Amino acid sequence: MPQLRIALAQVNATVGDLAGNASLIAAWTARAAADGAHVVVFPEMVLTGYPVEDLALRQSFASASRQALTELAARLDADGHGSVAAVVSYLDRDDVGPRDAVAVLYDGRVAATQFKHHLPNYGVFDERRLFKPGHTLDIVRLHGLEIGMVICEDIWQEGGPIAALGAAGVDLVVAPNASPYERHKDDQREPLVARRAAEAGAPLVYVNQVGGQDDLVFDGDSMVVSESGELLTRLPQFVEHLTVMDLDLPGGAPTLAGDLAGFAVRRVPLSDAPLAPYPARPLPDAFEPLSELEEMWRALTLGLCDYVRKNGFTSVVLGLSGGIDSAVTAALAVDALGASNVYGVSMPSVYSSDHSKSDAADLAERVGCHYQEQPIANMVEVFVSQLALTGLAEENVQARCRGVTLMALSNQHGHLVLATGNKTELAVGYSTIYGDAVGGFAPIKDVPKTLVWELARWRNEAAAARGETPPIPENSITKPPSAELRPGQMDADSLPDYDLLDRVLDDYIEGDRGYSDLVAAGFAPELIDRVLRMVDRAEYKRRQYPPGTKITFKAFGRDRRLPMTNAWREGK
Amino acid sequence: MPQLRIALAQVNATVGDLAGNASLIAAWTARAAADGAHVVVFPEMVLTGYPVEDLALRQSFASASRQALTELAARLDADGHGSVAAVVSYLDRDDVGPRDAVAVLYDGRVAATQFKHHLPNYGVFDERRLFKPGHTLDIVRLHGLEIGMVICEDIWQEGGPIAALGAAGVDLVVAPNASPYERHKDDQREPLVARRAAEAGAPLVYVNQVGGQDDLVFDGDSMVVSESGELLTRLPQFVEHLTVMDLDLPGGAPTLAGDLAGFAVRRVPLSDAPLAPYPARPLPDAFEPLSELEEMWRALTLGLCDYVRKNGFTSVVLGLSGGIDSAVTAALAVDALGASNVYGVSMPSVYSSDHSKSDAADLAERVGCHYQEQPIANMVEVFVSQLALTGLAEENVQARCRGVTLMALSNQHGHLVLATGNKTELAVGYSTIYGDAVGGFAPIKDVPKTLVWELARWRNEAAAARGETPPIPENSITKPPSAELRPGQMDADSLPDYDLLDRVLDDYIEGDRGYSDLVAAGFAPELIDRVLRMVDRAEYKRRQYPPGTKITFKAFGRDRRLPMTNAWREGK
């Protein structure tokens, strides 16, 4: 059977960095070529990075992307790799509008071009705002084999380009993707890719982006699946990776062109002669998917690392309260950036317990980060006495003096501030705007409180299993949570038990269930009332919170956009 | 010719307040009925308010909207107004998905229903995320006249429902709208409505929402245009208004049904017999559009008023620096809420000039708002000495101590904090996050600096023309702008001249022009470099800024959504 050596380049591009991304593509094409690859496939919009948001609408950006593509084709040829077909996705623009596009670069030129057909416009995606859909397919002939292309969402929808490729006839389908990580998502991908390979009647090469961008993190998890549904290889999650593999392809697919299943199909001959038979290597091992908790930890670490790095920061500063949220955030930061780039600050007030200081110091020692104590009593005292503050106003001033302290250290020393709030707090508005909500990034923003504890235990066990010091102090995990903004204050005074609260929130937010569904699920009506009222009132606070890596189905900000002025009360 | 008395109910609904909106509709239907109206037309999604954002996706909200509609139909009949055809738009949901819908309530029931066809998905609109398009048209027969319906965007696009109504035959078209205000937008509406009336071959009754919702403000500006393009009446801007008018309609339109121009057209008979001839009233006077500056002032006032009111606040607090931005913000707040609900705070630091205090006090006296002085020197001193702050870190701590002070007063006394930043500052990032950016609402967020001055002069002149005290101190208008965060600091040290800066920003942001276009427009390359670098770096700050009423084509947040991590540098 005709052979082909194909490279999957699972890379981490940066949004807007056309020159840097072009160099990345050139370097990985060279690596693929050095390993004898005939085709190299990059993720969706690798040249511009993804998602570009409204940059897609800027004429000057689209022009620059087109120009960078043409220059890249010439550069690959000049580097001696013109005979490697490089599948490079980019931002195009024509008379109809902006396009999410993919090109085949070959022999120094842009040999084939195709536009994404299915434009997702739900959840984190706004592609109908940004792009116009394509209705043409370019099938390239390389060494006598017919290679079709589809882009990301094109494989998530029934019909469309995959059906057209199946009708036209192809020997191989390549699919550049930018599919964000989300808990349990990898369970969906493999069967999906298998189904589309069967529909196309050809193996499908799925290459996904890796890396963090704003509040999204892409996990890679690229794969190749045969037309009979067999997983031929799978790439690792959360790291850049190049896999070069040999495929035996049947060849002899029909080569219909013209109007097929609603698409204008064009055949683009690059080279007709099949390759002389060569000794194929064994299939590369498929990487196993990570365990669920490790997968989330790695997602949070990579999202944090890339947000800091791609924004030009090298170090972070955060408040250490001795509690579980700041401990987990610090452990993530150390895993992401190294202990020498993490600055922890204990900021005790007159209401802080002794263990808040000792647990914070213990954490800092365990993870090896910088540590200082900055008591806030003097700052708070000036505000409270001058403005005659009492009650909630006095509580909030403490959180805000901490916020001002962290921002001052950031301005003075150039660290990015990390906010340490979790998803449960954000959901019910249990945080102080301009206080603990201060920061450039919020690593556990999308992690419910009960999952924060689970991750802490998992991380400690993973360390112990490697013979390392568990990073999170046991006391931070086991002690009852408290904001310590007034004497003896406990979270349990203001909030339902976290196990119960997270179950209501999961049903209401992730499950989008209404009041009557929640009653039917067995929750007490008073509890539902109380929780839903808190959630519905907190939208403004959530909007003002820093971004954080999305790991759930419905992350605040990205997936759930509610009015700030909203009189709707569920069940009332 | 057959007659009909029609009421345009230009009302201010509240998002999510189904019960309140139903009562509003019932009250205005009663007013219309008392004036003898046969039809009353309300704005788009009046029953739910508009825009509902992702509330549209909640099953329980859609069910509640449908139920509220049915109950409203019964209530109108029970009130004795069953024979008035009430055109009420609402959120519907069927097996296909959520729908932006309009119904005719008649005789105690939902007599006709139709779904919006053209779903805008650009600028401030995300309707393809939220709704599924409709492909059916219900034409009701009332007193022997055929009345067709279209919803908002359906008249902004060529073809579609208007063309189908023209083909089917109607005597009248009614169009509920939720069309947000934007500078110069009313210039577009009248010719558009006239063109669609001609295409439908019937007069068009255009009823637009009025009021603020989040960062949008709806200006009303409802109108009726004859099929020959004559403006028959126009309602005032920025206020609720009921116009009841008599129309002489030709009658005898063809009454085709079935598949027409891609729509399934259904005829819904309500009553066949024409009305006995009655003495028609003269046409009501058409309100003149406001002057451009008054229009903007009113938009900003209404947006601010409704944000405060609909969020359950009655009073606001803001910092008064003696500068033009806080002076204009205070004047807007007083016009919106009354002087007794506005609390001004002067917060001088050691670097504050004497005129900053005297101009602030002068402003407070002119507008009659509450006024207090809260020096921040003691608070700043604790942070600066304890944390050893210098340079920018010291400057920012001053702004942040002011932010903490305002939030403390808000928490203690229940006022909403207003941020006083203008669009130019936001564009270039000339503000302190968690400092002057603190607040629940930012009234002049979308007003460029040069326009702030223009509005101040206009407001003073308007006061003088009425024999009132001009609210803005002359010195606040004429003195050179300064942040006063270090000795002798002037905006001009950090920023280009505001006249020049606003012209570059207008071309870059509103005009979406790229680097080479700006060079071609004659701006110095160094200036373009400098301004664009500042704008591109400030996206994160802009995201954290409070919402404010949109009055321009490209308001930050709503219309221009850029990545926070973005390496793209225009022209580099």
UniProtKB/TrEMBL annotation, chains A, B:
<keyword id="KW-0547">Nucleotide-binding</keyword>
<keyword id="KW-0520">NAD</keyword>
<feature type="binding site">
    <location>
        <position position="122"/>
    </location>
    <ligand>
        <name>L-glutamine</name>
    </ligand>
</feature>
<protein>
    <recommendedName>
        <fullName>Glutamine-dependent NAD(+) synthetase</fullName>
        <ecNumber>6.3.5.1</ecNumber>
    </recommendedName>
</protein>
<feature type="active site" description="Proton acceptor">
    <location>
        <position position="44"/>
    </location>
</feature>
<feature type="binding site">
    <location>
        <position position="396"/>
    </location>
    <ligand>
        <name>deamido-NAD(+)</name>
    </ligand>
</feature>
<feature type="region of interest" description="Disordered">
    <location>
        <begin position="464"/>
        <end position="489"/>
    </location>
</feature>
<feature type="domain" description="CN hydrolase">
    <location>
        <begin position="4"/>
        <end position="249"/>
    </location>
</feature>
<feature type="binding site">
    <location>
        <position position="420"/>
    </location>
    <ligand>
        <name>ATP</name>
    </ligand>
</feature>
<comment type="similarity">
    <text>In the C-terminal section; belongs to the NAD synthetase family.</text>
</comment>
<dbReference type="InterPro" id="IPR036526">
    <property type="entry name" value="C-N_Hydrolase_sf"/>
</dbReference>
<feature type="active site" description="Nucleophile; for glutaminase activity">
    <location>
        <position position="152"/>
    </location>
</feature>
<dbReference type="InterPro" id="IPR003010">
    <property type="entry name" value="C-N_Hydrolase"/>
</dbReference>
<feature type="active site" description="For glutaminase activity">
    <location>
        <position position="116"/>
    </location>
</feature>
<dbReference type="InterPro" id="IPR022310">
    <property type="entry name" value="NAD/GMP_synthase"/>
</dbReference>
<dbReference type="InterPro" id="IPR003694">
    <property type="entry name" value="NAD_synthase"/>
</dbReference>
<feature type="binding site">
    <location>
        <begin position="319"/>
        <end position="326"/>
    </location>
    <ligand>
        <name>ATP</name>
    </ligand>
</feature>
<feature type="binding site">
    <location>
        <position position="425"/>
    </location>
    <ligand>
        <name>deamido-NAD(+)</name>
    </ligand>
</feature>
<feature type="binding site">
    <location>
        <position position="185"/>
    </location>
    <ligand>
        <name>L-glutamine</name>
    </ligand>
</feature>
<dbReference type="InterPro" id="IPR014729">
    <property type="entry name" value="Rossmann-like_a/b/a_fold"/>
</dbReference>
<comment type="function">
    <text>Catalyzes the ATP-dependent amidation of deamido-NAD to form NAD. Uses L-glutamine as a nitrogen source.</text>
</comment>
<feature type="binding site">
    <location>
        <position position="179"/>
    </location>
    <ligand>
        <name>L-glutamine</name>
    </ligand>
</feature>
<dbReference type="Pfam" id="PF02540">
    <property type="entry name" value="NAD_synthase"/>
</dbReference>
<dbReference type="GO" id="GO:0003952">
    <property type="term" value="F:NAD+ synthase (glutamine-hydrolyzing) activity"/>
</dbReference>
<comment type="similarity">
    <text>Belongs to the NAD synthetase family.</text>
</comment>
<comment type="pathway">
    <text>Cofactor biosynthesis; NAD(+) biosynthesis; NAD(+) from deamido-NAD(+) (L-Gln route): step 1/1.</text>
</comment>
<feature type="active site" description="Proton acceptor; for glutaminase activity">
    <location>
        <position position="44"/>
    </location>
</feature>
<keyword id="KW-0436">Ligase</keyword>
<keyword id="KW-0067">ATP-binding</keyword>
<dbReference type="Pfam" id="PF00795">
    <property type="entry name" value="CN_hydrolase"/>
</dbReference>
<feature type="binding site">
    <location>
        <position position="541"/>
    </location>
    <ligand>
        <name>deamido-NAD(+)</name>
    </ligand>
</feature>
<dbReference type="InterPro" id="IPR000132">
    <property type="entry name" value="Nitrilase/CN_hydratase_CS"/>
</dbReference>
<dbReference type="InterPro" id="IPR014445">
    <property type="entry name" value="Gln-dep_NAD_synthase"/>
</dbReference>
